[in-house]
Amino acid sequence: MALQDYKYEHFLVDSPAPFVAHVQINRPKKLNAFHRAVWLEFRQVFDRLSADPEIRAVVLSGAGDRAFTAGLDVQAAGGDFANASSPDASRNATALRRNIEEFQDSVSAAEKCAKPVICVLHGVSIGLAIDLATACDVRICAEGTRFAVKEVDIGLAADVGTLARLPRVVGSLSWVKDVCYSARDFDAGEALSVGFVSQVHKTKADAVAAGIKMAAFWGEKSPVALQGTKELINHSKNHTVAENLRYTTIWNSVMLQSSDFQTALMSGLSKKKPRFEKL
Amino acid sequence: MALQDYKYEHFLVDSPAPFVAHVQINRPKKLNAFHRAVWLEFRQVFDRLSADPEIRAVVLSGAGDRAFTAGLDVQAAGGDFANASSPDASRNATALRRNIEEFQDSVSAAEKCAKPVICVLHGVSIGLAIDLATACDVRICAEGTRFAVKEVDIGLAADVGTLARLPRVVGSLSWVKDVCYSARDFDAGEALSVGFVSQVHKTKADAVAAGIKMAAFWGEKSPVALQGTKELINHSKNHTVAENLRYTTIWNSVMLQSSDFQTALMSGLSKKKPRFEKL
Amino acid sequence: MALQDYKYEHFLVDSPAPFVAHVQINRPKKLNAFHRAVWLEFRQVFDRLSADPEIRAVVLSGAGDRAFTAGLDVQAAGGDFANASSPDASRNATALRRNIEEFQDSVSAAEKCAKPVICVLHGVSIGLAIDLATACDVRICAEGTRFAVKEVDIGLAADVGTLARLPRVVGSLSWVKDVCYSARDFDAGEALSVGFVSQVHKTKADAVAAGIKMAAFWGEKSPVALQGTKELINHSKNHTVAENLRYTTIWNSVMLQSSDFQTALMSGLSKKKPRFEKL
Amino acid sequence: MALQDYKYEHFLVDSPAPFVAHVQINRPKKLNAFHRAVWLEFRQVFDRLSADPEIRAVVLSGAGDRAFTAGLDVQAAGGDFANASSPDASRNATALRRNIEEFQDSVSAAEKCAKPVICVLHGVSIGLAIDLATACDVRICAEGTRFAVKEVDIGLAADVGTLARLPRVVGSLSWVKDVCYSARDFDAGEALSVGFVSQVHKTKADAVAAGIKMAAFWGEKSPVALQGTKELINHSKNHTVAENLRYTTIWNSVMLQSSDFQTALMSGLSKKKPRFEKL
Amino acid sequence: MALQDYKYEHFLVDSPAPFVAHVQINRPKKLNAFHRAVWLEFRQVFDRLSADPEIRAVVLSGAGDRAFTAGLDVQAAGGDFANASSPDASRNATALRRNIEEFQDSVSAAEKCAKPVICVLHGVSIGLAIDLATACDVRICAEGTRFAVKEVDIGLAADVGTLARLPRVVGSLSWVKDVCYSARDFDAGEALSVGFVSQVHKTKADAVAAGIKMAAFWGEKSPVALQGTKELINHSKNHTVAENLRYTTIWNSVMLQSSDFQTALMSGLSKKKPRFEKL
Amino acid sequence: MALQDYKYEHFLVDSPAPFVAHVQINRPKKLNAFHRAVWLEFRQVFDRLSADPEIRAVVLSGAGDRAFTAGLDVQAAGGDFANASSPDASRNATALRRNIEEFQDSVSAAEKCAKPVICVLHGVSIGLAIDLATACDVRICAEGTRFAVKEVDIGLAADVGTLARLPRVVGSLSWVKDVCYSARDFDAGEALSVGFVSQVHKTKADAVAAGIKMAAFWGEKSPVALQGTKELINHSKNHTVAENLRYTTIWNSVMLQSSDFQTALMSGLSKKKPRFEKL
């Protein structure tokens, strides 16, 4: 496969199973913290995977033992927001608006990626870690992961996705507000019990292996079905039931003409593993 | 009561308690699978119950020991989607659109039914079973129920309600996406822990009895209050808080003029069981 | 501080910790039940706290041992809805509409309060108690609390907030409909397991102490960050992800120019407690 | 063609041009007024035309010289709303709600009809006439047409479509409110100048001929293109630009695979009249 | 009637016809410009008229010959926005937000007024004049009126209603953007041709007389019908057709039980002027 | 100024007045028709102008005497949509979806451009010409312009913006549907009378001069005010009045802190031309 061409400065991308890409944030010495160059590259990686017919499922994790990501690399990112130096608040605001939009768009690339993304968290997973994790589809983690919606502690409201998505991702709004207002840590057990993560594994290695196994299982499915399911669930969270049903009708009016439908039916009858065309 | 007139080919309808209808999908030899004639009849049953003043609560279950429903009767339903035979994709799409809409409308009849509906699941409860269950109000099940959002395994995204409603019905989006992407089985315990079902009972008989007991309890309540509560909660899931409060205001500006309000207050003071007029 | 000036007939307001207001519903002999004068005063209290720069977090509880609130004081409130006496249903409806709107607006004052509100429940917490609790941000309770969405039992659909907010506050819609249709009691353990409350404490005193401790912890945070977080989460529950991200961008384009950002960063580096300007 | 099978009690349906149906309200002695049987039949006619592959455009007019329609046949319709006889306002409301929904659904059949509908108005065109006309796509009229949004004069707010659609159909909200509040007459010239109608013709016969000519012109177009255009414009009026663009993308991702695209291109090059397959 | 009790510092309120209130902005020496005390009083006047059963229609005009209103009284209003004096942009923003909301709410009182409002413009009608006019229902003016959306010329985007409502009030978005970007004057003829106003009269006196005549005509109508029509058209501009139809159904399910319906029918048959109960 | 660096293959960009950019589609021999390379460049040009502090207003026109644009360059664009060659309709649809999105995003760049855009049309202005024109803010044209929403005549529904925006741009929906269904030509006079264009000039040269004059007039205004006005009007067309007012409040809570506000006030008092800082 052509994943060998995915060469990036801040990310490692390989393919541990057929149709699966594993993306690692690769700044372990910096606790995988982000600055502008990192988030722009993050977007490039996911935009490319989204359109790559060789890939049907993605795992996102952080390199090294210590952190999925510790959030913003404040030192390195200092300059990224530095234009707020005009004496005119409205002109500063315009500059900041452009920065925030660009950063939001980068994080949203995981949500917009046509293929489902599993986020595997471990170690320090604070601030931006939650923004990234909520933009993914399924979350699993290692024991010992330290989670926190940390933004209030640096004097701001989280603005690249956590506040938009966390209330859609877990059921208890009381819990969401507790962790967002207090910026307190929560651990893997708490994350599991509120439904933020779906699985907790002993070690980071176990968690990554479980993520890859899940992705590999998805990778055997019809890509038409899998990508359609992601699209329609994400649409559902943003629309009424009636609008989602209508949109689904239009979507499936062409997707049901896919050969995958026949392929899946046939392989179901013959008990053989189906082979689906690229998408 | 007049439920004796509810004669249908694929459904059994009786009244095990005052104001309660029990609807059973009645194709046990076919694992209660649906084809077009079945879903059209399903809609007729629920549209009729919705307007029947003798009925205040409904229980939906599947006849026989093996299945609530195994989903589509692929053999029998083969012809239902057969019109996709034109060489012109847009004309196929138009035909498919009409089929999907009709099928969606049938499933939605449980949601649109003015009276609350309890879905009792047991045995094989896959594919369409989840679409039907999420269109009902409360879900309870028997131990040993085998649940699955099965559509991905037949090469398509679920299109008659599961993807629209499941994210509104349980809190953990990570779990929703896990079961929808993987098409994996989940059992009664898992269904309970994520909040998909509210109760698990030893046997199907126990679960049905519990469903009927719950429906009978509701049946003693003011039908004005009960139907208003269903309407307003369903509205709430599709609108902002402000819009729902406004809609509620208009709704209750007439409903508070109901005699049920007086009846309930009086019986509360006198400790007698209230008797409400038909609705 | 100036909370000494918060003199109200039906509420006690004091400040048990820096930047924290504790509001107690103060009609213990009447189980803290509400009539029109009470809810109008409730709104005054929260509107005032919302704009008071001395306050950064609020605790709401009920005075006395027996009840957070038993709901409407039917006797006293009798007259509040009495104008429904015209023989003309449309004119009654117009009068009722004004009453309901006023009552809804009063309850919504807790949600609109710019500062986060912790609701501490104990004892009898039925009917209006749930409307109030869901309009707050975080809910905690004492063991032995008796919860119920009681409105169906008095012949009406809840209309001052429960049906609008409860489906947003907990994840399991099956549970929401169960308790709303049946008007049955549920206890602290059930409330915790479904995510309605975040903590359960032995006694009312423990629960109030825990609420105050949480509020005091929040009170040390940047008020710009804290109030922004409340605003953006509440916005998120009513809008699409895309709309919320956009709104967040505009909001933070000015809020990131706050001195709190610098103050928080500096105190993080120096390990000193930050001191934020009033807001 | 098979329009000869369109036999109805209150409507005449014929085909004055290829692919065109002309529907006439056929109660000229009653000024084409509607009661329940009429509006139920209206829905049947349009639902059938919507799915009839022989038809690509529809003209709606009123038989006789005197009226397009004078609105409700109050005498005959008396019984249609008569169930409002309970002493209980909430039960009356429930009955009325069902009546209004059914009537709205009937009128909306013109809007939901997959094929575009031209409404030709003449003579008395008041009350329901405006509801019907705004549910159609294009409006033309004869000189001497007497228009009025008449409902306020019978003590009610228009409820089967005028208030929902008129503000979307003409640009000046000041004019919309003027005619809706006052129930005053307006004539063909005024209707043209505000954009309510697109053409005014000398006589009813001229107007009908013009309507048929326009429909015949549309009938020569690609039905895939024509029906898609209706669907997408109607969607546009109810959604944001971004949502409409997305919906359009999905819609055209299959519709561009139509043979009509090739057929139209080819006939454009060869200057021959294209012949499109049925839809 | 009791309008004699409407005593205000900045407004004259009298009743030139049965059921009609005429509200005049009464600062002619200051070209009827607004500062904070004026807009707070404006809200009081309209909130009171909204609930006053003696009033069914309202006319709003400006006292004196020179202006409907010249907008903000910059001198007097200087202090109203003066709190923007903190060196902290986020704290200034919070203060400004409260000011803008209060001002918006005041202007919106005309839109929220349950009774329809006719705005009669003359002379200088710039800036706030357009915000006020678009919050009214029908606009008429005198020849020689000088209109302008003036805000861009004082360095800001209009923020108390013009940008929100003007695109809903006239049809041509090209024209809306032209006048809003350029801040150029437009005259009565242009206002009429784009549909911003419905009538142009020779003099201010003629325009006021025409406004009062129109209001008096409305005042003879069923107040249930009139107020319902305003509510439903305003709702329509903010919702989809489907949502508006649903809302209309609930609204009319009680309003059709009004005695006005019978009264209007009867008087129609007997050719007598109907007399409706207060609302 | 630095516009000299705006070197593009298919567009000419110069600055005929301070702060004004004039963008000409520069394929006059091909009637300014577009293929993929053209629309990708179109987006680049407008994205760059959007962020260029030297530019405050933009004019878009077509080079040469014959056409603003004749739409798609079918020959050259043939390959752009050629991937629809799989026998699998769902895979074709996926490829088409990506193409349509990219094309839509390109056209939308004019709408998203922070600076207002005047579209000057002349000669052949069909198909894509309308998509482009409706994405601009103000439209003016030369006599003799030939307009048509041409897509139906090539067998498809317009999909890069016309159907989404035209119903928001002119008031008469009857007219919109007439021209979209029929694909008929309309001329400058008709375009003016329905409000599609704001001005008609004798010649193309006159129209371009008028566009530049209008842009130059805007260019003298506060850029904070001008860009805010564009943002808020566009937001208004996609949201409710209440949502737009709220968004406006947040927007202006920082924008009112701009120095432009002071600058404009001062220059108003001193009757001097204001000089605003870059934005």
UniProtKB/TrEMBL annotation, chains A, B, C, D, E, F:
**Any one cellular component term from GO for this entry?**
mitochondrion
Instruction: Look up the record and name the pathway of this protein.
Output: Lipid metabolism; fatty acid beta-oxidation
Is DNA repair found in the keyword set?
Answer: no
- Name a GO molecular-function annotation: delta(3,5)-delta(2,4)-dienoyl-CoA isomerase activity
Q: Which UniProt keywords apply?
A: Acetylation, Fatty acid metabolism, Isomerase, Lipid metabolism, Peroxisome
Q: Which InterPro entries match?
A: ClpP/crotonase-like_dom_sf, Ech1-like, Enoyl-CoA_hydra/iso, Enoyl-CoA_hydra_C
Tell me where it resides: Peroxisome
Q: What SUPFAM superfamilies does this protein's entry cite? A: ClpP/crotonase
Please provide the Gene Ontology terms (biological process) for this protein.
Answer: fatty acid beta-oxidation
Q: Where, by residue number, does the polypeptide cross the bilayer?
A: none
Where does this protein chiefly localize? other
Q: Which domain of life is it from?
A: Eukaryota
The text of the family note is: Belongs to the enoyl-CoA hydratase/isomerase family.
Protein name per the record: Delta-delta-dienoyl-CoA isomerase
